[in-house]
Write a structure and sequence with these properties.
Number of domains: 3
Number of strands: 12
CATH class of the largest domain: Alpha Beta
Bound molecules: iron/sulfur cluster
Order of helices and strands: EHEHEEHEHEHEHEHEHEHEEH
CATH superfamily of the largest domain: 4-hydroxy-3-methylbut-2-enyl diphosphate reductase, catalytic domain
Strand order of the largest sheet: 1-12-10-11
Structural class: alpha/beta
CATH topology of the largest domain: Cobalt-precorrin-4 Transmethylase, domain 1
Distance between the termini: 13 Å
Shape: flat
CATH architecture of the largest domain: 3-Layer(aba) Sandwich
Number of helices: 10
Largest sheet: 4 strands, parallel
Strand content: 15-25%
């Protein structure tokens, strides 16, 4: 068996920055909580909780004296305003790439112009970005949603940072037909594009593709979609226990990639598990 791990697999810059900051706070015994799970990886979130930093669902759950850590997805301006009004200190771990989208949206919509976001309406990053717009906001996850939307004559279009490039292009093609005065900002993050491209080329060559990441991690799901298009044996695993039995042959080329919120230690554990399973294979 030949085993390859993608160079761009795992934590991206923004997630690493947020996780390091949260563990720093725990080390300094600063009473703090994260607003929502810090990353889409239950194992790393549990490790953080064990270190003393738990997650809360809303600002109502923040106890007096606690600091709030804002995750890399970013939040709406209303959240900062509420923290200020309630005297809650903030450690802002919004990824600089996401903060840049907030600025684009805020500036462009100052005169009330519309904002189009290509991405998943429920995703916290999208909710946060939408909150910075002054005018109408259209969130378009698919080309079909763009077809049916009543779009205005003037708008800016931005993308969820973890979107697949082909999805963005497909939605954009429809939007271009409908919006006369369109400003396009391609805001898919380079870390995401590199990981996606790498997953694409690995899955073309591999007999078995393993994608490590949380089931609720959107970029892990997108990696899985990408790999399944090219490799019939592509599996998503959250922990080493999820690695499917009986799928590895002795001559197989196996490749591993991982979502942006997958820690290195988990990636290593999965790699060891695959090696053990291959060694045990008949
Ligand atoms: S995927 Fe990109 S934009 Fe999102 S947190 Fe990571 S570095 Fe930032």
């Amino acid at each position: 068996m030949k085993l390859t791990i993608g160079e761009h697999a795992g934590f991206c810059f923004g997630v690493r920055r947020a996780v390091d900051k949260a563990f720093d706070c725990a080390k300094q015994q600063l009473p703090c909580v994260t607003l929502g799970p810090l990353i889409h990886n239950p194992q790393e979130v549990a490790r953080l909780e064990h270190a003393g930093v738990r997650s809360v669902e809303s600002l109502e759950d923040v106890a007096p004296g606690q600091t709030v850590i804002i995750r890399s997805h970013g939040v709406t301006p209303q959240v900062y305003a509420q923290c200020e009004a309630r005297g809650i200190p903030v450690i802002d771990c919004t990824c600089p790439h996401v903060a840049h989208i907030h600025q684009l949206v805020r500036e462009y919509s100052k005169d009330g112009s519309a904002v189009i976001i290509v991405g998943e309406p429920e995703h916290p990053e999208i909710v946060g970005i939408a909150g910075w717009a002054h005018g109408d906001v259209f969130i378009l996850p698919t080309p079909e949603s763009a077809q049916t939307a009543q779009l205005p004559g003037r708008a800016i279009v931005v993308a969820q940072t973890t979107l697949r490039r082909d999805r963005f292009e497909a939605v954009l093609a429809v939007v271009r037909e409908k919006v006369r005065d369109l400003t396009v900002r391609m805001t898919i993050c380079a870390a995401t594009s590199k990981r996606q491209q790498e997953a694409e080329s690995l899955s073309k060559e591999a007999d078995v593709m393993i994608i490590v990441g949380g089931r609720n991690s959107s970029n892990t799901q997108k990696l899985l979609e990408t790999c399944r298009l090219r490799c019939a044996r592509a599996y998503q695993v959250e922990t080493p226990q999820d690695v499917p039995a009986g799928v590895f042959g002795p001559q197989d080329r196996v490749a591993i990639t991982a979502g942006a919120s997958t820690p290195q230690w988990l990636l290593e554990q999965v790699k060891v598990r695959i090696e053990e399973m291959c060694a045990d294979a008949p």
